[in-house]
Design goal:
The structure holds two protein chains of two kinds.
Chain A: H1 2-28, H2 36-46, H3 50-72, H4 75-81, H5 84-97, H6 103-121
Helix pairs in contact in A: 1-3, 1-5, 5-6
Chain B: H1 2-34, H2 44-55, H3 58-78, H4 83-89, H5 93-105, H6 111-128
């Protein structure tokens, strides 16, 4: 039960956070150079977008769940299992956003699921 | 043409930073958590004790710094390249994290786990290489279809 809660939080909050951040960055616009001042400006602009805060909040939740999981299991087990976010993303897209998931994408999702299963089987 | 080349270069540079800094951060966090002892979160006093232990660890802070580096590189690259271009390229991170876990923490990674990680990498790559917008008609112009340069057209 503990493991299910931890991994669900890592996957769900992590994926949700990434989507929010990705959306925020599209609002912020392109970084034009790597000059520290320019990077600071981009970060400051990003902090004014509410999506960024929502994303950061969800990522923080995912982060503490990750710390919890890492205290119980090896990192080479925990991180591959978090790849389940691709499976969750595809099903979430179909269920909540009525997205059209292509056969090739389902193939990728299936491969990820098989990979995570193998990682679970090789746990010992 | 030169600016397109530069953009490709900085895209790959940022992806390289992501592939190294992300897994390194996770491995450092794991190192910190392995030395933090039992993780009691109840009652609140125990949670405070746990939090103090965790954040007293240098590895945790190095891990956080590494993950911030990853995050900044990720934010920057997403500001000009598509998520669906960055995602497959960063699939290598799953392999890197296992490699670093093995090298830095001496974790035992069974052949079955390696196989699983390889399949995950391939799966993530396949997911990412699909057309991100399935509901829209493709444009015929090869230049505008370059996923590394979405912001440029």
């Amino acid at each position: 039960m503990r493991d299910i809660i931890l991994f669900t939080l890592i996957v769900a909050a992590g994926t949700g956070g990434e989507l929010c951040v990705s959306r925020a960055m599209k609002v912020v616009g392109e970084a034009t150079s790597f000059h520290p001042v320019e990077i600071a400006k981009v970060i400051l602009r990003a902090l004014r977008v509410p999506w960024m805060w929502m994303g950061v909040g969800m990522m923080a939740i995912a982060f503490f769940a990750l710390l919890g999981a890492l205290s119980f299991y090896n990192v080479s087990f925990v991180v591959p299992v978090t790849a389940l976010s691709y499976v969750a993303g595809a099903f979430g897209g179909v269920a909540f956003l009525r997205e059209n998931v292509s056969p090739q994408r389902w193939l990728g999702v299936l491969l990820v699921a098989i990979g995570v299963t193998l990682v679970f089987l090789g746990k010992s | 043409m030169t600016s397109r080349k530069t953009l490709h270069l900085k895209t790959y540079l940022m992806i390289a930073v992501m592939i190294v800094a992300g897994p390194l951060g996770n491995v450092l966090l794991a190192q910190g958590m392995k030395h933090s002892g039992a993780l009691a979160i109840w009652p609140p006093a125990a949670l405070l004790h746990t939090a103090t232990n965790v954040f007293a660890s240098g590895s945790i802070w190095l891990g956080v710094a590494s993950l911030i580096t990853f995050f900044v590189a990720y934010m920057l690259v997403l500001s000009w390249a598509d998520y669906s271009f960055v995602q497959p390229a960063s699939s290598l991170a799953y392999g890197v994290v296992a490699l670093l876990g093995y090298l830095m923490l001496g974790e035992h990674v069974s052949p079955l786990r390696w196989a699983g990680i390889a399949v995950i990498c391939v799966g993530v790559f396949v997911v990412g290489r699909t057309d991100p917008k399935t509901t829209e008609k493709k444009r015929g112009n090869a230049e505008t279809a370059d996923p590394a340069l979405v912001g440029q057209v």
